[in-house]
Amino acid sequence: MRIGNIDGRAVVLTGSTGAQRAVDIAEASGGRFGPDPRGVFEDWSEFAQWATKAEFGPGRAVDADDLGAPIPDPRQIFAIGLNYRDHADEAKLDPPDDLVVFTKFVSSLAEPNATVALPSDTVDYETELVVIVGRELHKATPEEARSSIAGYAVGQDYSERTVQLRGPAPQFSLGKSFPGFAPFGPAVVTGDELADPDALRITARITGPTAEPHGGSWTVQDGTTADLIFSVERILADLSQIVRLYPGDLVFTGTPAGVGAARGIFLRPGDVLESTIEGVGTITNTFVAS
């Protein structure tokens, strides 16, 4: 199942890319669920049971630009740093023994195909698998954490590196929370839609000025979520030992190697970045001067 957001209403998306259709959840359920996108996840267990038996009508045709952030107002957004060994290596840092955690403030959320204004010439990209929490967790085991996952999405953790790294102490959350710095989507995809949720190819491709020396198109990241240092259930379980996770919370799980800072590049006006996770989808962001 694929759950999206159109005009602030929760929808089930059917069909293939380029021929998607949307069924309004509130209308299809007679008002039992929806229309609030986050509300679907707050009642996730009952909604999922209903949805497996529901007969959805044909719905209406959907254009990619119709889709908003699948959950536009999560209570909390967590992000995990240095969660791929190859990314730790390119950052010249030791792989962590414990989670490296920061937040992206809710005001940084954006629709999957957002146009992003660059506040400086030191903005970087990080393609990430986003996990969506489907029930409240606190002091959970990894097994309990795994069963709490509602679904997965593609996310970008854009970073203004100057703000992020300025002293006297780094400002990760501020540097990663400019408007538009957390686009995600195109939908929340449930695990049954994926061949193996723990081994998904994850790529990022730039076209535009930054890619001109590479023939106009440059695949800058190409990894697999099988290389996560901390698995998704370990991330949720470890977070829950300290904080309380709520339905609809988002967890950005880290990025593989190939980020701009390691390559000596940053995003420029006119660039277009396509971020893809196998089976989950693609989000496309265009960059303009602030």
From TrEMBL:
Gene3D superfamilies: Fumarylacetoacetase-like, C-terminal domain. Keywords: Hydrolase, Metal-binding. Residues 77-287 form the Fumarylacetoacetase-like C-terminal domain. One of its GO terms (molecular function) is hydrolase activity. It comes from the Bacteria. It holds the Pfam family FAA_hydrolase. SUPFAM superfamilies: FAH. Belongs to the FAH family. This is Fumarylacetoacetate hydrolase family protein. The lineage of its organism: Bacteria, Bacillati, Actinomycetota, Actinomycetes, Micrococcales.
